[in-house]
Amino acid sequence: MKIRGALRWRTAGLLLAMLIIVGLPFMVTLSSSDQTQLASAWVIHSTEVRSMTYRVAYVVHDSEAAIYRLLAGDANAPTNARSLRAGNEVPALLQQLRAMTRDNPQQQLLLGGLENSVNGRNILMNQALQRLRAGDAAGARQSLRDADDLFAINPQITRIVDNENTLLAAREAAAAGQRTDGRWVLAITALAQLLLLAIIVVASERQIGQRRLAETREGRAVQRSRLIFQAVREPIALFDADLNSLLVNNAFSELYGQDQRQAQPLAQVGNGAWSDEMLLQRLRDVLLRDRELWDYDTVQRTVDGLERNVVINARRLQQEGEPPTLLLTVSDVTVRALAEQRVTELNRQLEGKISQITDINRELEAFSYSVSHDLRAPLRHVAGFVRKLQQHLADRLDDKAEHYIEVIGGSAQRMAQLIDDLLVFSRLGRGPLRLQAVDMQSLAEEAQALAEAGHEGRRIVWKIDALPMVIGDGNMLRTVWQNLLGNAVKYTGQCEVSRIEVSVQQGRQGDYEFTVADNGAGFDMQYADKLFGVFQRLHRASEFPGNGIGLANVRRIITRHGGRVWAESEPGQGARFHFSLPATDTAGAQH
Question: Which of 424, 431, 376, 433 is nearest to 534 (CA)?
């Protein structure tokens, strides 16, 4: 390939040299001819400009002469027509002059002055004609004298013509200089021809040396490639169209006991490791139909007597003018196969654990049923007999007995409530999530109305920011808002004015972070780890009623939604409860 590239380079160089030797004189001659034609064109152009300029002056003076003849009494038709020529013909002549000198700003400026003078002269000439028609011959002569005094055009005509002559002389000089340059270029071209011939001879000799150097480097590159081929730890081999070995690397030789110096059919390599007829047919298809073989997984007994899981890849290689060859690579994946077996065993064990967990869940459901029915019946009996005892004794109850009965009844009611809350907590952890688009604004406002019920006499100031839509279980998230806003109202009960704020912001991970802040009793942060536990309370029931399971429900719901819950507070300084939810797109949610 390098030799072909060098030959192409030499051919391109010869063609370029011939192009320069032949083309450059032609271009110089053509340029000289073009310059001559251009110079002739400029001479004609300058002559036309001067002629047109003189014609303007002639027409203006001819009109003035005709007016003077009218003053002398020669009032025939030709004289009247000549007196009007300046007004009729000169504007068109000036327009032609402007078009002819558009490439010359100086001439355009001079033409502007000439045009002003001609226009002024025409105005006074027309005034003279009007006065003459009115019988004021003296006034007509005065107008003509004023036109000649105020609007002289001869100096302007002279400047325009002189400027055009100067331009013509400069253009003729430039053309002469270009002709001289052309002669120099022809002389230099002759020298360049000789120089190029010398360069071609030198370059040819140098190219021969470079080709020899390239051949040496190519030989070294081939040797380096062979070293790399032998150093690769993955078995690689090259076979001819009949599946006889041409080249194998050290890894292939060590794995199958193949002698690198001796050609051997693939079916005989490795004491029959490659005798699988299906595999041999696949490899022949690769050679005949150019079908690549990818990741063919099989088990072979190698020269060391071990059975190995191997992955075989093969593709056809073919150089121009040569028969196809087969490139074969082998990957030993025995360790991976063992790992996959281990993973399969672990999956089987995991399935057993899942089955056990399923059984435990069924037992929990049975336990929940027992709690719901079997434990509630005795509580109902206790509460019922307490009421009957209270009715039976009636007025015979003293204060201590009344107190005992009230404690028994309250405890029974509290235990019933604890059972209900525990069942709710259990269902929150086991029930499926019904994901849909949930309007957090509506849930928060609904929880606000519910939290205010029964507290009509209190002053509660609410501030609820605009809240987004999220993806979640609407009933569970409603429970979250009812617990958090209910707690905010409860723990601000001792404040003269309760202030409760609800806000939201985007977190660093893109999640929504909701916050419920109040100015209530607060709590000590050293006990914050107990805050979200089941039946854990940081205040006495006499101060703030409750059973300590609401925040546990909040944490379980938010955790199941992929978020987290945390709180910040100081005693007497209010509390800030935060929870986060993934900011999932609501477009694909079920409504």
Answer: 424
The stretch 10-30 carries a mean pLDDT of: 66
Look at strands 498-506 and 460-464 and give their pairing: parallel
Which residues make beta-bridge pairs with 236? 329
Neighbours of 274 (CB within 10 A): 20
User: What's the one-letter identity of residue 364?
Assistant: L
Q: How far is CA 64 from CA 61, 95, 160, in A?
A: 5, 21, 22
Categorize the per-residue pLDDT at 369 as very low, low, confident or very high, splitting at 50, 70 and 90.
low
Structure tokens at 10: 């030499």
Nearest to 384, CA basis, from 358, 359, 412: 412
Q: Which residues contact 425 (CB under 8 A, 6 or more apart)?
A: 534, 549, 552, 553, 556
For residues 241-268, average pLDDT: 81
Residue 305 to residue 300: CA distance in whole angstroms: 9
Q: Tell me which of 4-8, 39-43, 64-68, 496-500 is least confident.
A: 4-8
Residue with the two structure tokens 């004794």: 393
- Sheet of 460-464, strand order: 460-464, 498-506, 512-518, 575-581, 565-569
Residues 471 and 310: their CA atoms lie apart, in Å, by 48
- Give me the chain's average pLDDT, please: 77
**Could you read off the pLDDT of 172-186 as tens digits, one per residue?**
777 677 767 667 776
Taking the alpha carbons at both ends of the chain, their separation in whole angstroms is 68
297-346 confidence digits (pLDDT tens) = 888 888 777 888 888 888 888 877 788 888 888 888 888 878 888 888 88
Q: Provide CB contacts within 8 A for 331, sequence distance 6+.
A: 234, 310, 311, 312, 313
Whether 522 shows a pLDDT value over 70: the answer reads yes
Which helix or strand (DSSP H or E) is residue 135 part of?
none
Residue 20 to residues 29, 129, 463, 499, 581, Cα–Cα distance (Å)? 14, 72, 87, 93, 77
Class of residue 369 by CB neighbours under 10 A (exposed 0-12, middle 13-18, buried 19+) = exposed
* Distance separating alpha carbons of residues 46 and 49, to the nearest angstrom: 5
